């Protein structure tokens, strides 16, 4: 026998845990700051103490963990480390390591201070759900004040010494008493036991009540009473630990023996032995005590549970993890109890017998999983093994001072005992005692009762052995059926590294040897061969059949590994060519390779590379041998790809003989379907390397042909008018893959191989020169065309966005994803690309016009030469030509509009809404335009629009930035732009509603190869399904939007809703398709006067200034000069035009695509103040940024004329004039 000690988890932030628990004891913080996270301490307190070897430390960590209370849940998903009144909870988290494998870590989920001082009692209970799986976790804490808290519960006034749980176990043999769940709490002179079922029901009820109270905003809960038994332990001087063995029933002989000993010769004996609960205690006087409580001798006590809703402990417990029982955090402290809770008296229970040893004092007892044995440690450094049933010591180990104990139970394999023709025999179990000796730094595993030591491991001297001794709570004989929950039996926590070393499990020595990653394959092969020969030479009846099969199967796998490894040393270069099929897609493949290779720098490790040699341990773990056949065990994609690379990558690169490798694999009996999956996996996952090796495609064709000719690949009875499962497997892998180029190449190769296969079958069956027509070939034609379309689309999506734009990760598409995305999935992908590229609507319109010109001049709908695919415009035109229906201009503009409005909804401060409206204007179909406008209004706009209207009505003027952000969710400038977009959107709605009757609805078509798309309805389909709008109601909203936009633009004082009568107010913000009562032509005179008063309050000079700025903004300088003469407040106009001039000059010097050398030299000569001011300008606000310098020079001259010399910005205007004149002179 041998043992394995494997790391299954690692604790993160261990240094922070220690610093939190021992922050008051850190005497030298400067030294601790220099230590790394794993180097938690360097204890030099014993330096120089060479005379005492036992006092020497290993120098890695101080024994801080021994001063803490540590408990790990049975499912290993929660750990609690506590000291005094502080506690840290660590919850399980899964992360991916560098090799792509999932690993579990324990990270700090909560740390804080407990209200009471912690005693040594701490337990983590996991409760089941209705399905029998782990549902929620409860931490049971015992305090020195006597409280046990899962809720506030006072059971005794003495300190809590120990908390232990016992969970349900399925009886192993008929007649064995069924053990029920129980929580036992040890006090110095009392033992409290709580029935597990009652505890589970009470905690679940409290948990549900707290959840309902939290949902209702209340803290009033009424927990049910808790039933428990309290025993007064007598006849022992001191008690430090205990174990609850459970219910037992004596045989008749033992009953008569006990009766005669206790009652004498005349004692009476009952007809049936009574059921008794057995408890074992350790301490002193006697060293070990055995107590028996007859069932029914004590009635359960009812305690009214007090919920500490505001306690720090419960708040921490149940805010740290959502699945824990608990309450929300409260700011107030726990109210002090007015009177002390009543403590129930204990029922006396005398010790039945014990193991007297006046000098020896017990320290710890650990009960075995089968409840028949127990290990006890004492202050003499001994470990004693007790026979629980007989009450005697049967074994003792010396030299284990401060030892920590645990148990491992190993079940018998499912073999002949369960397959016997009669009633199946129960499985046998072996018990192993685990002893951790911290002073020697060794972990040992001993066989019981008199078995040898089967394993020993050198570990750290400051570790903690964590052994729960229980499993899931809330389980009974019914819910335990089919229960295969894995719980960690015992594990070792190393504080130096934070590692949790998994359960010590005795196993076969050969399995341990094969699991060694450093053992060479030749050594493993020789050892396995010798062992197999030795077994063959023994008596067949004495040989373990399982060991014989293991040796035989592993030897066969090792031989296969060696053969494949040797074949990779020779090469073969003669292959068939398929250049004609590749010429058609070569330009797109080249452009795709340019965009995907080296687009983003990354770090990789040689050991994780697919080129790294496959360790023999990994090979054996992924293969199974059943009789004469070998099959591959399905596993993660990374392991599957690594195994495929080991088998086929040498063949794909031409370094290995293809036919020999295929012949070797065929002899092993591995199914061709599994070999095909491995080949496709490595091909599709190593796309970048495949594109660099041009000869790999030809080698793939040869490999695929060889695999297809294997027995069991393509059925001989296959009807050519049906779909072949073999080739369907290839198509399924290609259409699901996100590696577009590799999938297309694989499809082209498979199409050629399938066509050759069908031709051979046709010649065999029909003996005719006619070309065979097959459903299989039709499927391949569709698949190849779909993959070509996807490659073209993926190439476009790989174009990196320009710098400074809101970029994101490159999306990956596949044939399957596009088919499942519905008919609008392709347009949606391109719309997202347009957003990432920050393409202006007018520029997109020009690009689509190029597409129309190309279609009118070229007869072919798909470009084959690919000469102009160097820019994103050409790529977009190419994709649009491949999808003429799915990417029609109206559909693309509609999806772009929707994408921009979605992005605006995420960030209203950015002007995405204005671009969404611009895209909507470019939609030519009024039906689609009307539907998109209605959907935008109802989904995103109307809520913010109504909030803005009510805010302005409430304030009575243009609100400040703070109020806009609070009520509308955007700043004042963003809200002004938003209201302007609302005006344009409502204008589009009215125009589209007027044009729907003149034009027939468009027919939404899709390309023939994409006709099977299934998924959600497309955006255009939803738009055409929208109801029509009520024109007067839209016009009514348009009037309000114009009024709101005017108020925000010119900072007017107005209550906009007050300018409408009651009918008008009630009609606002209703469904635009509904019929509402609108204001009549007969207007209330008071309302008319109110409107006239508002118009009279509008300063005409403000409108003139706004008109001048808008004319200059659009580049209409001559018309602006004419209006400028009518403006009265020239100072304000000068300040406004100064900003506009700065925007023009900033565009000329900083934001043009082709900056001239004179412009750059001028920028270097500018004063620092002017240069900083120009960089702060935003030219994107200009309607026409490209204005001749002569117009800008004339504008600056006009600025100096209208600005007084004492104006604060007069000097800035002079600097602008000099800069413009210099720029003109240089040009």
TrEMBL record:
Ranges for domain Rab3GAP regulatory subunit C-terminal: 674-1098
Location (main, coarse): cytoplasm
InterPro entries given in the database record: Quinoprotein_ADH-like_sf, Rab3GAP2, RAB3GAP2_C, RAB3GAP_N
A cellular component annotation (GO) from this entry: cytoplasm
Superkingdom field: Eukaryota
GO molecular function terms listed in the Swiss-Prot or TrEMBL record: GTPase activator activity
Domain Rab3-GAP regulatory subunit N-terminal: 64-466
Subcellular location: Cytoplasm
Keywords recorded for this protein, A-Z: Cytoplasm, GTPase activation
The keyword Cytoplasm is annotated on this UniProt entry: yes
Residue segments, region Disordered: 849-872
Protein family (similarity comment): Belongs to the Rab3-GAP regulatory subunit family.
The protein's name in its UniProt record: RAB3 GTPase activating protein subunit 2 (non-catalytic)
Species assigned in the record: Oncorhynchus kisutch
The gene coding this protein: RAB3GAP2
């Amino acid at each position: 026998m041998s043992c394995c000690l494997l790391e299954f988890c690692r604790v993160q932030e261990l240094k922070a845990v220690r610093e939190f628990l021992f922050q008051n004891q850190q005497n030298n913080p400067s030294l601790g700051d220099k230590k790394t996270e794993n180097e938690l301490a360097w204890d030099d307190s014993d330096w120089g103490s060479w005379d005492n070897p036992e006092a020497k430390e290993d120098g890695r960590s101080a024994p801080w963990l021994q001063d803490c209370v540590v408990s790990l849940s049975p499912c290993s998903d929660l750990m609690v480390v506590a000291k005094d009144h502080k506690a840290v909870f660590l919850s399980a988290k899964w992360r991916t390591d560098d090799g792509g494998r999932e690993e579990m870590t324990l990270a700090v989920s909560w740390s804080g201070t407990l209200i009471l001082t912690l005693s040594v009692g701490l337990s983590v209970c996991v409760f089941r759900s209705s399905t029998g799986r782990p549902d929620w976790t409860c931490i049971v804490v015992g305090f020195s004040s006597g409280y046990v808290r899962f809720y506030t519960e006072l059971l005794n006034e003495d300190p809590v010494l120990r908390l232990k749980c016992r969970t349900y176990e399925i009886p192993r043999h008929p007649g064995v008493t069924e053990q029920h769940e129980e929580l036992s709490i040890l006090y110095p002179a009392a033992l409290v036991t709580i029935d597990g079922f009652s505890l589970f029901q009470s905690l679940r009820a409290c948990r549900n009540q707290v959840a309902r109270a939290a949902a209702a905003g209340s803290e009033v809960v009424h927990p049910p009473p808790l039933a428990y038994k309290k025993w007064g332990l007598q006849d022992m001087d001191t008690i430090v630990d205990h174990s609850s063995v459970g219910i037992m029933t004596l045989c008749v002989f033992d009953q008569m023996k006990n009766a005669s000993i206790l009652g004498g010769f005349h004692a009476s004996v009952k007809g049936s032995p009574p059921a008794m609960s057995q408890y074992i205690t350790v301490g002193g006087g006697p060293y070990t005590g055995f107590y028996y409580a007859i069932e029914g001798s004590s009635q359960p006590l009812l305690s009214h549970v007090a919920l500490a809703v505001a306690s720090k402990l419960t708040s921490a417990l149940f805010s740290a993890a959502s699945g824990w029982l608990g309450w929300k955090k409260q700011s107030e402290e726990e109210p002090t109890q007015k009177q002390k809770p009543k403590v129930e008296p204990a029922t006396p229970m005398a010790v039945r017998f014990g193991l007297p040893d006046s000098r020896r004092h017990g320290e710890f007892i650990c009960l075995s999983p089968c409840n028949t044995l127990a290990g006890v440690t004492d202050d003499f450094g001994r470990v004693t093994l007790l026979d629980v049933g007989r009450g005697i010591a049967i074994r003792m180990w010396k030299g284990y001072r401060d030892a920590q104990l645990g148990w491992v139970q190993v079940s018998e394999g499912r073999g002949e005992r369960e397959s016997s023709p009669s009633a199946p025999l129960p499985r046998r179990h072996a018990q192993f005692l685990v002893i951790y000796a911290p002073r020697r730094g060794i972990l040992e595993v001993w066989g019981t009762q008199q078995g040898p030591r089967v394993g020993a491991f050198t570990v750290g001297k400051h570790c903690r052995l964590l052994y729960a001794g229980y499993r899931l709570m809330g389980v009974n004989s019914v819910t335990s059926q089919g229960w295969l929950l894995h719980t960690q039996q015992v594990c070792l926590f190393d504080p130096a590294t934070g590692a949790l070393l998994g359960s010590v499990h005795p196993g076969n020595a050969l399995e341990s040897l094969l699991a060694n990653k450093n053992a060479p394959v030749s050594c493993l092969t020789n050892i396995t061969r010798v062992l197999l020969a030795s077994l063959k030479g023994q008596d067949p009846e004495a040989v373990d059949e399982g060991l014989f099969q293991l040796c035989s199967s592993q030897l066969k796998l090792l031989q296969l590994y060696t053969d494949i490894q040797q074949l990779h040393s020779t090469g073969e270069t003669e292959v068939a060519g398929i250049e004609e099929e590749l010429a058609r897609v070569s330009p797109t493949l080249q452009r795709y390779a340019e965009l995907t290779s080296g687009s983003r720098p990354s770090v990789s490790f040689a050991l994780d590379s697919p080129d790294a040699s496959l360790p023999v341990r990994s090979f054996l773990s992924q293969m199974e041998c059943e009789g004469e056949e070998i099959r591959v065990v399905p596993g993660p994609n990374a392991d599957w790809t690594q195994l495929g690379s080991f088998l086929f990558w040498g063949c794909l690169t031409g370094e290995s003989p293809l036919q020999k490798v295929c012949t070797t694999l065929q002899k092993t009996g591995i199914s061709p379907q599994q070999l095909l999956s491995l080949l496709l996996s490595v091909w599709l996952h190593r796309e970048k390397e495949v594109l660099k090796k041009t000869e790999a495609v030809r080698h793939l064709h040869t490999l695929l042909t060889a695999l297809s000719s294997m027995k069991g690949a393509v059925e001989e009875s296959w009807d050519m008018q049906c779909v072949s499962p073999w080739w369907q497997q290839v198509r399924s892998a290609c259409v699901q893959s996100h590696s577009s180029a590799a999938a297309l190449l694989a499809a082209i190769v498979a199409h050629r191989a399938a066509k050759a296969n069908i031709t051979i079958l046709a010649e065999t069956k029909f003996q005719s020169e006619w070309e065979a027509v097959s459903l299989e070939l039709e499927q391949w034609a569709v698949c190849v065309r779909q993959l070509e379309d996807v490659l073209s689309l993926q190439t476009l999506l790989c174009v990196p966005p320009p710098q400074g734009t809101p970029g994101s990760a490159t999306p990956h598409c596949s044939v399957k994803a596009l088919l499942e995305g519905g008919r609008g999935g392709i347009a949606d992908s391109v719309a997202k690309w347009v957003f990432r590229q920050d393409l202006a609507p007018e520029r997109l319109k020009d690009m689509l016009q190029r597409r129309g010109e190309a279609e009118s001049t070229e007869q072919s709908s798909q470009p084959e030469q690919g000469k102009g695919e160097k820019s994103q415009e050409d790529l977009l035109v190419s994709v649009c030509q491949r999808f003429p229906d799915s990417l029609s201009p109206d559909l693309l503009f509609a999806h772009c509009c929707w994408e921009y409005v979605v992005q605006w909804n995420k960030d209203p401060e950015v002007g995405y809404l204005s671009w969404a409206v611009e895209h909507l204007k470019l939609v030519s179909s009024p039906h689609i335009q009307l539907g998109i406008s209605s959907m935008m209004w109802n989904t995103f706009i109307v809520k913010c629009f109504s909030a803005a209207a009510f805010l302005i009505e409430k304030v009575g003027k243009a609100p400040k930035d703070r109020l806009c952000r609070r009520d509308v969710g955007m700043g004042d400038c963003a809200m002004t732009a938003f209201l302007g977009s609302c005006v344009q959107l409502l204008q589009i709605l009215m125009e589209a509603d007027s044009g729907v009757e003149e034009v027939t609805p468009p027919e939404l078509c899709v390309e023939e190869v994409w006709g099977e798309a299934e998924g959600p309805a497309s955006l255009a389909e939803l738009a055409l399904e929208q109801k029509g709008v009520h024109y007067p109601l839209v016009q009514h909203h348009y009037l309000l939007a114009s009024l709101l936009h005017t108020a925000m633009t010119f900072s007017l004082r107005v209550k906009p809703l007050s300018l409408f009568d009651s009918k008008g107010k009630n009609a606002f913000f209703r469904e635009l398709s509904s019929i509402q009562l609108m204001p009549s032509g007969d207007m209330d005179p008071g309302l008319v006067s109110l409107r006239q008063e508002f118009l009279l309050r509008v300063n005409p000079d403000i409108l003139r200034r706004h008109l001048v700025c808008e004319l200059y903004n659009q580049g209409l300088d001559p018309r602006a000069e004419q209006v400028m003469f009518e403006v009265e407040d020239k100072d304000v106009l000068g300040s406004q035009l100064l900003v506009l001039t700065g925007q023009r000059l900033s565009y000329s010097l900083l934001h043009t695509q082709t900056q001239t050398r004179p412009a750059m030299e001028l920028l270097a000569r500018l004063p620092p103040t002017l240069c900083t001011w120009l960089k702060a300008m935003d030219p994107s606000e200009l309607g026409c940024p490209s204005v001749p310098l002569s117009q800008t020079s004339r504008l600056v001259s006009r600025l100096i004329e209208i600005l007084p010399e004492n104006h604060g910005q007069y000097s800035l205007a002079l600097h602008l004039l000099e800069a413009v004149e210099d720029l003109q002179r240089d040009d």
